[in-house]
Amino acid sequence: MKLPFKVNLKNKVAVVTGAGGVICSHLAKVIAECGARVALLDLNKDAAQAFADEINANGGTAFAYETNVLKKDSLEQVKEQIHKDLGLVDILVNGAGGNNPRATTDNEYAELDDAKKQIKTFFDLDVSGVEFVFNLNFIGTLLPSQVFASDMVGRKDCSILNISSMNAYTPLTKIPAYSGAKAAVSNFTQWLAVHFSHIGIRVNAIAPGFFSTKQNEKLLWNNDGTPTVRTGKILSATPMGRFGVVEDLTGATLFLLDSKGSEFVTGVCIPIDGGFSAYSGV
Ligand code: NAD
User: Fold this and answer.
1) Could you read off the pLDDT of 84-117 as tens digits, one per residue?
2) 178 CB under 6 A from ligand 1?
């Protein structure tokens, strides 16, 4: 794998949640390429295993673990196994997350005649869907931080990287739960950075702009593969005029995880968005 620059993560153990997915499988590979031993955690063990195999085939060291980031006992069990396989954890990337159609309104705006239409309005949103999305993104960041950061206490050069989103700055239409949850992730990044500042654990985040992945494909692409209206709006609101690709996340991730490069950086969230969050639309 070609990196924009290399940092030395040798002798580090990194846990990456959601590592069976598009973004975090890439981050796991990048971290492994810099010498860290990597634990790939995902609900979908097979997906995480395939990426662990790829890392091992390229000369790295990686293990995959089936884990639910919403279950503390599942995280604790995996942590015990990671200690046996890899050692104490130095780096945590909280990547598991995403939206769900049950927490998504059909339309951007409420209209006076909505009651006559066969659509899912704000009033129809299923609270269990809202809770699911909120918990996956926020509790799914908080619980792994509780479980794995305890390894970092009293040790040098440890840090946590959370994954926020454009929603955290200004909510996107249709997805109130995901927007609120990612705002909570950004807020929690600052809270935990302050809380851990005396014990030397840095906590930062990246906020990817728009990447076309499994978790948002239904919003971005019609069943026949043509782009949705939303895709057109996203691209016209992204000054650089394209979707992000995972390689765009590499540099900021390495900078934030490398204590040599970012020793005095904690509580920040770096947007990687082709200018989306800077653009007013005019
Ligand atoms: P993805 O769907 O490809 O990957 C998410 C992974 O998380 C999947 O492999 C899934 O199995 C796993 N997962 C889901 N629930 C889990 C649970 N309870 N426990 C453990 N693992 C679980 O999505 P992605 O686009 O790669 O997203 C990764 C992160 O980046 C998410 O936090 C997402 O919200 C965020 N993000 C994505 C975009 C984008 O445009 N794709 C933009 C900004 C932020």
Assistant:
1) 999 999 999 999 999 999 999 999 999 999 999 9
2) no
